[in-house]
Each structure stands twice: as C-alpha cells, then as structure tokens.
Amino acid sequence: MSTVWTNWAGEQRCSPLAIERPRDEAALAHIVRRAADAGLTVRAVGSGHSFTDCACTNGVMVDMSGMQRVVDIDSVTGRVTVEAGAKLWALGPVLAEHGLALENQGDIDRQSITGAISTATHGTGAQLRNLSAQIVAMRLVTATGEIIEVSPDIDDETYLAARVSLGALGVFSQVTIQCVPLYTLHRHDEPWPLDETLERLDEHVDGNDHFEFFVFPYTDRALTRRTRRSSDIPSPPPRWKRWVEEELVQNKALGLVCRTGRRFPSQAPRLNRLVSSALSASEVEDRPYKVYATNRAVRFTEMEYAVPRENGREAVERVMQLVAERELPILFPLEVRFAAGDEAFLSTAYRRDTCYVAVHQYSGMEFETYFRAVEAIMDSYGGRPHWGKRHYQNAATIRDRYPDWDRFQDVRRRLDPNGVFVNDYTRRVLGAP
Fold it and tell me: % helix / strand / coil in the chain, to the nearest 5?
C-alpha cells in the first residue's frame, strides 16, 4: 500500500509506490538500479522544502534522511565532504568547530544540502554566488545505478549541469563544499522610507557584504538589513532578546496578524500599515550559521523571481503598485535580495548579477491571482523562477532565458536517456529527457 507524502508547506501531496530510506551509497545505488530495471521512476527528497511538486512521484521516492554524515573535513583547504542528505542547520555548528563556515547561506536552513543546491537556493550579497557555486565535487548515482565522480577537473560540462539540476540527472550521494575560514556577521536591521531605500539601492547593495530589504504592500517603509563580515570574536545578544525579536514579534505577532487578515481580508492594508509602523531597529552579532537563518513558524506559500539587477527597483515598484491597484489581500512582505552571476547552466543567476524578488501569501488564502500577476511583471524582464518555489512556467516559456539550455539537455540525455528521474514537474519545466 502506498504512503502519502507531503511537503513542508503541506500543499504538495503524492503517493509513491514505495519510499526507500538508504543508509549508505551502496544501498542508494541498489535502490536506483532495482527501480530502473523494473521500469519505475525515481525521485530523491531531502526536507521537502520546495513549494513546487519537484519531489513528487508515483514511482519510487528516495528519502535521503538516512545519509547525513560528514565524510571528511580538511581544515587546510577548507573542503568538506558530506553525504547528500545533510541538513544545513546541522552543518553550521560542525563547520564552526573546525574553524570553517559556508561562504553564504539563505534565510532558511531546514533544507538538505543537495535540495538547496539543486534548486539554486541563494542568500544575499552582490559579490556572492548561490549555494551551488560552493560545491566543487559530487558523487552521483546515475540511471543505471552507476556511481560517478563529478567535478570541473573530470568533466566540466557535467559539473555545470549537475550543480543546479532539479534531480533530473541522478541522485547525489555526496557533495564536497568549498568552505571559508570562520567569520562573524554584524547585522543591522533598520526601517527606512521605501522611496529612499530604492533611490539608494545600488549604494546599499555595493556598500555592504550582504544587503536585503522587506516591504509590506500598502506601506511606504522598508525594513533594511545590512550585514558586514569580520574576523572578530562575536558578542552575541542575550538569547532572550533574540527570542523576543524573532519568535514573539516575527512569528507570534505576524501569525496573529495573518490569521486576522485571513478572516477579514479587506483589512489587509490596515493590518500591514500597523505592522510596518511597529518595525524598529535591531542588531545581531554572531557566527554566520546563527545569523543567516531564522525560524519560520508562520506557514505560507511563495513565488520568487530572479531578474537582472538593474531591473530590481522597477520590478519592486510595479509589484507594490499591482497590489494597491487591485486591492489584493496580501499579508506578507516582499523580500528583495541580490547575488552575483555564476556559470551553472540552470542557475537563476546564470551570467548576470541578479536581484531576487520574493512574494508570499499566508497559508489558506488564495494566491494564484497575485502570483500570476507578479509573474507577468517578471516575464517582462526575462525573469527566471526559483526552481523550488511556485511558478507557472514550462519548458517552452523559459528555455530561451537560459543561454546554455541545450547543453544541460545534452548532459541529461546522456545520463538519463530513458527518463528514470522524471516526474510531472521535470516534464513540465524541462521537457522530455
């Protein structure tokens, strides 16, 4: 009897024929080989944090939670090899014990390392690339159950395809991460007028190691987040203070506002202005894994688009205008981040400096009207959807946004000619293998 699987948000559901939980690479390879021989498809899942149906399958689902071990740490080179199911939240403290850290990270750390890289998950920082760019080597179980080494020295074409591959090339068993010496983050959150934030956007982005901002629809204030890096020994704030700011205010209070807005959607503008008026300055200083990510207790669904950095300001202004003109009941802020371009074939920042604009809707509220309208705006800039978040694109609509789309497809056909790793999502966004 099949088992029902759901993602983190509880919105994607599927009934795999079987859910396998390998404990090591040999078992993983055996599972893939056996499924392929039986004519079954295979999809791997880490934490199920994607908002799309990327992990869903009616074939064999491979739950990677049993493969989270740290295989090797080289403190001299900074290279760390971990099994593919390793969770980001658990990796940070281990790296710190060896004087190392991830170069950059997103604001959620519940994902597995390979789930995060496969969907081009990113943080923010004009000079910093997404998480997949920190991967320097991989071990991949292909459609025949063969285990291959992937690195730029062995096969640059496969490496550039595999870094962001949506699970369409095989199942990772291990990845090697290029880490950096342990550092301290000094984060300063401060409300600014939205007009001034946008007017000085390049100054903020270029003048800080990390910069992002959040703005609620129907308001004219942005919460800016400026973060610098140093080699200083950190002086973290009292735990109670961070709890008040992040749990009581960002989760408890926001959850109350969202529940009220879901019941009385016409009050969204008033509720957003109330929340925006309560924003205040705060500072955090600590090791990176304690600063980058925050707990997200309020459930939501999300869409995020990557647009050329030079179009970021206009894109934000148009989304804010869209919500106001159509009087949409949106209770979550826009989140705006930045990243350097990179070379992975399906990276959302492929060969261009990028501004990421994320939009959300509270769980249980209608979102498609908002998301489709936002997507139309992002389409006008050649926007690329975050592979792990909601969007309405297909292979025909997005292939021209990736100059090396065909190179990726060549690698895919070579590694998975019979479509062992396909599902509805990859068929839709990548086409047939």
Answer: 35, 25, 40
Q: Which residues, 6+ apart, have CB-to-CB distance to 287 below 8 Å? A: 92, 96, 101, 182, 183, 184, 185, 234
The residue type found at 377 is I
CA within 13 Å, CB half, 253: 15
Query: Span 363-368, mean pLDDT?
Result: 96
Backbone angles phi, psi at 325, to 5 degrees: -65, -35
- How far apart, in Å, are the Cα atoms of 295 and each of 109, 125, 141, 304? 9, 21, 33, 19
Q: How far is CA 75 from the centre of its chain?
A: 27
Which whole number is the average pLDDT over 202-217?
Answer: 98
Domains (ranges, CATH) in the chain? 67-181 (3.30.465.10), 184-385 (3.40.462.10)
Tell me: the pLDDT tens digits for 266-310? 999 999 999 999 899 999 999 999 999 988 888 899 999 999 999
Q: pLDDT at position 10, please?
A: 86
